[in-house]
Design goal:
287 residues, alpha/beta, two-stranded antiparallel ribbon, 7 strands, HARBI1-like
Length: 287
C-alpha cells in the first residue's frame, strides 16, 4: 500500500510515537490506597510478632518456621520496583498466601482484609503455593526409595504391630465450586462438588506420596489405579521383596492398608466387611 504523501507518513510516525510514549493508567481503589496504613499486614500482623501463640493460631505455623520459609522464597517471589509502583513485599505476599490457606476464606475476603485487589490475591496464592512446593518438595517429600519403604515397614511393625505394611492410603474429598461446563465430573457420592486428595502416610502420619486433583466422582480405588505412583511403583512391580510374617516361613508380599473404598489386592489390604467382622472376634481385631 502506497502513502499518498510524505505528510501521511509523518502523521503515522507521530501517532506511533505518541502511542509508545503513553503510560498505562494504573487504577487503585481509594480503600486499597490506604493499604500501608490500615491493611491487615501493616497493622495486625506486626502486632502478632510479639505473641507467639496468636501468631501460630493466625498462620498455623510458628514464627521460626515462617522466617525459614520466607528466607527460602525471597529470591523466587520478589518483584522489581518500577517507575509506576512499588511491588508488594515478599513477606506480605507470603502472609497473604498463608492466611488464605489457614482460613479457607474466599479470595475476596482476604483482599478486603489486606486492602489489595481480588485478582492480586489470586495471583499471589497461585505463585507462592507453586514456589513453596517447588522449593520444599525435593527435601521434605522426595520420591520414595526402597529405604523409605523399609523404614515405614519397620515403623508399622514395631508401633502398630502390623508387619509387612509399608503405608496407609486414603482419599479426601476437597469441596469446590462446580467448574463451568464440567457436568457431573466433580460431583461426588457425598452430594457436593469436589477434587480428591489421595495420600499414603507412614506410621508417624507423615505424607509419603500424594495425588491431587482427580474428579470427585471417581472412587479412591479408581484414582489410585490411575495415579502416577501406581504406574511407577505398583503395576507389575513390588514395593519391597516378599518376606515371611513373624513366626512363619512362607514369604508374603508387602502391602498398603486402606478402607472399604479400596479393592482387595495382593499389594493392598482392606477391612473385612462389617457384617462378617461382627461374627468373628479375629476379624474385628484385624479391622
Amino acid at each position: 500500500m502506497e502513502m499518498s504523501s510524505d505528510s501521511d507518513v509523518e502523521e503515522l510516525l507521530l501517532l506511533y510515537a505518541l502511542s509508545r510514549s503513553q503510560r498505562k493508567r494504573v487504577w487503585v481503589h481509594d480503600i486499597n490506597q490506604k493499604r500501608k496504613d490500615l491493611g491487615e499486614y501493616h497493622r495486625l500482623c506486626r502486632e502478632l510478632a510479639s505473641h507467639e501463640d496468636r501468631f501460630f493460631t493466625y498462620f498455623r505455623i510458628s514464627q521460626d518456621l515462617f522466617e525459614e520459609l520466607h528466607e527460602l522464597l525471597i529470591p523466587i517471589i520478589s518483584k522489581c520496583t518500577t517507575n509506576w509502583r512499588t511491588p508488594i513485599s515478599t513477606r506480605e505476599r507470603l502472609v497473604i498466601c498463608l492466611r488464605y490457606l489457614a482460613t479457607g476464606d474466599s479470595q475476596q475476603t482476604i483482599a478486603f482484609s489486606f486492602r489489595v485487589g481480588r485478582s492480586i490475591v489470586g495471583g499471589i496464592v497461585k505463585e507462592v503455593c507453586t514456589e513453596i512446593w517447588n522449593t520444599l518438595q525435593p527435601e521434605y517429600m522426595p520420591s520414595p526409595t526402597e529405604e523409605t519403604w523399609k523404614q515405614s515397614e519397620k515403623g508399622y511393625r514395631e508401633t502398630w504391630n502390623f508387619p509387612n505394611c509399608v503405608g496407609s492410603i486414603d482419599g479426601k474429598h476437597v469441596s469446590i465450586k462446580c467448574p463451568k461446563n464440567s457436568g457431573s465430573e466433580y460431583f461426588c457420592y457425598k452430594k457436593f462438588f469436589s477434587v480428591v486428595l489421595l495420600a499414603i502416610v507412614d506410621p508417624c502420619y507423615k505424607f509419603t506420596v500424594i495425588d491431587v486433583g482427580s474428579y470427585g466422582r471417581h472412587s479412591d480405588s479408581g484414582i489410585f489405579e490411575n495415579s502416577i505412583f501406581y504406574r511407577q511403583y505398583i503395576h507389575g512391580k513390588s514395593l519391597l521383596p516378599d518376606k515371611p510374617l513373624p513366626g512363619t516361613e512362607e514369604p508374603v508380599p508387602h502391602v498398603l492398608i486402606g478402607n472399604e473404598g479400596f479393592a482387595l489386592k495382593t499389594y493392598l489390604m482392606r477391612p473385612f466387611p462389617r457384617a462378617l467382622a461382627t461374627q468373628d472376634e479375629r476379624k474385628t481385631n484385624f479391622n
